Structures are given as C-alpha cells and as structure tokens.
Amino acid sequence: MRTVAALCSALVALATPAMPLPAPAQTPAPQCTQVNAPAGTLYAAVPELPVLAVHQGLSGDVMVVISLNVASEVVNATIQHSPSAILNSAALAAARSSRFRTEVRNCRPIAADYLYVVTFAPPLAILGAPDRPEVTVTATGRAFGVPDSAAVTMVTRLEERDPLVAATHDRTAANAFARAPGIAAHEVVLRSYNLLYWSTKWPAGEEEPAIPPPLYLITRGDTISAPLGDLHAVVAAAVAREGVQSLSIEYSVHQPNPAYDKANAAAMDAAFDQAKRIAAGYGYVVAGPPRVGNTRLFGSSVAPVVKLRRGAPVTDSAIVQPPSTVEIKATVTATFPLKLQGGP
Fold this sequence. Notes:
Blueprint: E1 40-43, H1 51-56, E2 60-68, E3 74-81, H2 88-97, E4 99-101, E5 104-105, E6 108-109, E7 112-120, E8 134-145, E9 149-160, H3 163-178, E10 188-198, E11 215-227, H4 231-240, E12 244-252, H5 258-280, E13 284-286, E14 291-302, E15 306-307, H6 316-319, E16 326-340
Antiparallel strand pairs: 1-4, 2-3, 2-7, 5-6, 8-16, 9-11, 9-12, 10-11, 12-14, 12-15, 13-16, 14-16
C-alpha cells in the first residue's frame, strides 16, 4: 500500500496562575514497542458477491483508497478503479469491515491514505454432469509471523577507462567480498550485471564518478540470504564493499511455520464462505468438503532501498530495522460439490 498524504496538528494553551502551584506528579512516559512499522492488513473481510454480478459473470479486482486515522480506523473509502460499478458497493463494504494497521514512524502512527485491493473471484462454474454440479473458487487468507530470515540485495558500481580492466576489477572485488567476514558462510547470488560505456556529461543529481567521462561502468546486483541473527554482519560487510551504491532488505518467514497454517486455514474458510454465497445465488448449497487444486504461500516484507554515497558514513544499525511481524498470504483454489437447496 502506498502513502498519499498525512496531516498533523498541535494545540498549545497558555495560562498565568495567581500563585505558585505544586508540581504535578510525573507520569512515566509510555514505552514505544515499535519505532518503525509498515502499514499492513490485520483482517481482510470477505466481499459479498452481488447476485447481479453472479448472473452477469463479473469478477476481478476493485481498487479502493482507504483513509486511516492515527488509531488505524477507516474514516473514508473511495473507489479508484473497478471492472464494474456493480461490484463497488460490496468492495467498499469489505474495505470498511476489514482491519488495518497504519504506518508507524519514529514511534508515531501516521494518518494516511492507502490503496487496498478487494478481489472478487469468478462466479459459479458448473462442471461435470448436471447431476454433479460443482463450484470452483479462489480465496486468500492472511496471518502474521515473526521474521526469521532476510535477503540483502546490494547494487555496486565500478568505474574504469578500459573495459577489460573494469571486468577484472569487478571480478576481483566480487571474489574478495564472497570471502569477507560475515559473508563467507552465506551464498551470494548474482541478480544483474551490466557493462556500460559512458561518454557524455554525467546526469544531474547522480553521484559523480571518481573519474570524468568517457569511462566504462559495471553495475551489478547481488543478493545474500541469511538468518536474522547474521544480518548485522552481512550488512556491515555490504556497506564496506567497494563501489556499493544501495542496499535493500527483504524480511521473510521460513516454512514450516504455524503462521502459514493459519493463513491457509483462513483461506479455506474464505473459500467455503464464498462458495456458499455463490451457490445460493443459483439455488444450490455446498454438499461436502472440497478438492483443493492449488495453494500458494507467500510471506515477506521489503524495506525501503537505502542509497549510499561515496565516503558518507553509515552504520549497519541504521539499515537493519526488521519489522516485528511479516504478513503471510495463502491463496487457495478449491472445488466444492453442490446440491439443490432442499434436495437429498
């Protein structure tokens, strides 16, 4: 979700007492449990598929802009994009019934607007023989887990006059980094590699190269995955690497983990509720347990990219700020057997 705006205000009152008053008792300041935390969805309400949408075969994603106050309450919701106006009221109702957590920055919750996507799965699909109707639905469940691992992606840039010297320099630096303390115990995966000849004036706003153009630039992106306990050592080595330009960290929860089971159970519950609603629009009821055709599990949180400047001091502690929890998503596709309402 992206932040659109945030407003803050303060009120100051002044008074002149007639005589000195005793100092009030000091109240301990509340402890901040989370200095910084990303916005997230705590509970995603299952949207009610309108009967008219069922009959017209409507489905898709409705993008809703929600406004959260500092208490993470939804104070406004509007449609940004929708495949059909028939879905809008149900999407707004689902957004208002969901629970969210607004961004926390420096111990302060931020009132802001976020983009929330309400997904309407395709309506009833009758499969097989007429006497064996079924409905296939896709639903998503969410849970939260404590991150236990991280993937650090770093971008480096090396500058040389000669392309062969540049390639040799890059290879030497990469091998030395792979053997560095804090890195040697982990796998370094090359994600991107680019050799560029630059002969014109350097772009405004970009960090000037150590040598003026014309020159050859090698930029590469490497990813190092490590347990959360090793993250400070990995980032400290990455910050010290020659030519480092930026770092980003993806925090994740490894499987198996109970949070994935909770997300999967929530997805199955949502699929069952969705199947019941869709079937009822055709005069059917769910007749038994489903066949699960596909399950996807995902759980990670990407921190903002940290850009580094040549010679500018930076510590690994300024970069490593893992969230207290990571949102786990499970998406399931399930086929439920149906029978006519009131039938055997």
